[in-house]
Amino acid sequence: MKKRILILVAMVSLVASVLVAEDPRPRILAMGDSMMAWHNVSGRSIPQVISNELGEPVVSQAIGGARIIYNLPISGAMGMKITNQYRKGDWDWIVVNGGGNDLWLGCGCTACDKRLNRMISDDGKKGVVPGMVSNLRQSGARVIYVGYLRSPGVGSVIDSCRPAGDEFEARIEAMSKLDKGLYFVSIADLVPHGDRSFHGVDMIHPSVKGSAAIGKRLAEVIKANE
Hints:
It is a single chain. By secondary structure, this protein is α/β, with parallel strands linked by helices. The protein has helices spanning about 1-20, 35, 45-55, 100-105, 115-120, 130-140, 160-175, 210-225, and strands at about 30, 60, 95, 140-145, 180-185. The chain has one domain (about 25-225): SGNH hydrolase (Rossmann fold, 3-Layer(aba) Sandwich), CATH 3.40.50.1110. The protein is about 40% helix and about 10% strand.
């Protein structure tokens, strides 16, 4: 009898250790637009790559076409405004991107000063983006803000967005320097000049290779700061 009890205790301890080791609690949330959500159906989106690299679940609320500023009263489109993608949870990390659709679709990448200033001030302290990040940080999570792919010197319909995009990301970087729990991850250097393989055929969204490279870079940031 005593031997059986000892065996039972050992088995319970083993099961408990396995449950602790394989804690299913998702602790990483992803938010954003189509760059984040691209290849989701095939299981190769950026959040799914992060999940594979870290060996743990990543919950993604990212939706194609989502914007930072979204005023259209479309029923069921709550997730189209990136700030509304947040879901309550015990998050350690929140990975977010956004702003590209605001500059491309919102102001055509040309007369964007007003919209850019509304999203984020030049010192990174005011605007919708700092407000969103502040709310995310108040949840206790650390936040990674991800930049955008650049076209590799090959024609793209969003090439005209480069100056506005560069300024937007410079402001995000300035914001990140104000908070040690906020990390700006630029991917402006990811694509070698003339290399189309990191983009899909539309030269806007990442290819499977591009999503993999972005996801791995983000996973490394999480690993390095755990």
